[in-house]
Amino acid sequence: MESKVRDGSGASGGASKGPSGESKLWERPTRPVAAEKAPGGESKMKDSEEDGQAEGASALGEVDKVEQGATDKVEQGVTLERNLKASTNSKRNSLVVKIGMVGDAQIGKTSLMVKYVEGKFDSDYIETLGVNFMEKSIALKNAEVTFSIWDLGGEREFISMLPLVCNDALVILFMFDLSRRSTLTSVKEWYRQVRGLNKQAFAFLIGTKYDIFATLPYDEQKEITKTARKFARAMKANLIFSSSSHSINVKNVFKLVFGKVFNVDCKVPVVKKVGDPIIEYCTV
């Protein structure tokens, strides 16, 4: 296994407005962000299930009407296949899968990336300035797959670098801090901005800092979980609660990414109980 890190530099001025919780956040932007071309623990709480399926679909269903249903599914498959072929290295049967990570500042994006690639966690990580980049290769029987992971700093000043992270990505991880609801609300604007640049990438909704979430009152856990489920349905995204500091669902995030990209069953069990580290699949 081989990994490497590259830090990006900050960007300033002239960028489109960053996440701000505006009223029409789930709409596509009328004019996409100007793009530069990119380089190629645990809590056992009282069980309570929410019905909420119809509610989520009706409240946020408008977000994906512009995707044009089945037509876009076909286009998505064609685009992903083309991108995979384009990212094939000179070494035969070696594929690069680009993964973008977006979300507000200080929610644990870098921690998740470093924990997965290097198996380390440092509570004193310095906030990402610009873009961080790491790779991890997975040796299979007849091929090698490299996850190329791009982590965008969450401050507004770095929004001009969003194209660098999103363009040509096959997967986007939309991330939020389970202990700060405002970061979940911001996912709406991140989603709008990202889809203005990349309509085909698979979306994942990742809640971080589950270890803190597990200490919250049950009613608060229930409300956060309900909202996250609603967002995940609207985004057609798998939903995963994780903790880098306690190694909860870190590997499972990337197992599910692999399964989604290559259309294989990675046999990661579903977890639905409120208060537990949720793993739910998109069924749309």
Description:
The radius of gyration is 18 Å and the shape is globular. Helix content is 32%, strand content 18%. The protein has one domain (51-280): Rossmann fold. It has 284 residues and is an alpha/beta fold. A hairpin with a 4-residue loop joins strand 3 and strand 4 (144-152). The protein is built from nine helices and eight strands. It starts with a strand and ends with a strand. It has an eight-stranded mixed beta sheet with strand order 1-3-4-2-5-6-7-8, with helices on both faces. Residues 1-25 and 27-78 have low confidence and may be disordered.
Helix content: 25-40%
Mean pLDDT over the residues: 77
Class of secondary structure makeup: alpha/beta
Question: At CATH's second level, what is the architecture?
Answer: 3-Layer(aba) Sandwich
* Major beta sheet summary: 8 strands, mixed
Which fold name is given in CATH as the topology? Rossmann fold
User: Whole-Å distance between the termini?
Assistant: 35 Å
Strand order of the largest sheet: 1-3-4-2-5-6-7-8
Q: What count of structural domains?
A: 1
Summed up, the helix count is 9
Low-confidence stretches: 1-25, 27-78
Radius of gyration: 18 Å
Shape: globular
Identify the CATH homologous superfamily: P-loop containing nucleotide triphosphate hydrolases
Helix-strand pattern, N to C? EHHEHEEHEHHEHHEHE
What amount of the residues lies in strands? 15-25%
Overall strand count:
8
**CATH class categorisation:** Alpha Beta
Organism: Mucochytrium quahogii
Keywords: Nucleotide-binding
GO molecular function: GTP binding; GTPase activity
Protein name: Septum-promoting GTP-binding protein 1
